[in-house]
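Q: Structure tokens for this one, please.
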Amino acid sequence: MSRFEITAQPLTADAFAPFGDVIDCTGAPDRVINAGLCGRFHDRARLDFGDGRAGVSLFRATPRRLPYTLDLLERHPDGSQCFVPMSEHGFLITVAPDDNGQPGTPLAFLTAPGQAINLLRGTWHGVLTPLHAPGLFVVIDRIGDGDNLQEMHLPHPYSVSSD
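A: Here is the predicted structure, written as tokens:
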């Protein structure tokens, strides 16, 4: 494998922790409500919106295929960003550690059905990358004044595959 190839790994809370939260229903519910008919998995994401407010938007992204060419990373310095798929399909997540204000070496994760993610404020990440139609997501992020987007075109694209 060349230094510009990435193998996507299954998404786990431990592996993703430096970049954000995995949101799923693992373990027992924290509370059982509605006369015992609903389990609440409480407070699963560290939402952080600085001086703005939380907003709920819908995104419809064109599905992509693996191998995927990763050539653009972005980050949001003023707020976290939570992606909740509106289908049972997994999606590709690409992230990179910060290296003195620039993205470091990227990593890639494949979600399982029923998983969502929350990216921490300032985390370098790839664009929304569904692998199946309809590519529809609920996105919870910062709504407020100022430019909350930094983009970085990578000088050498990476090829992301699943094996």
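A few notes: The chain has one domain: 5-161. The chain has a mean pLDDT of 96.
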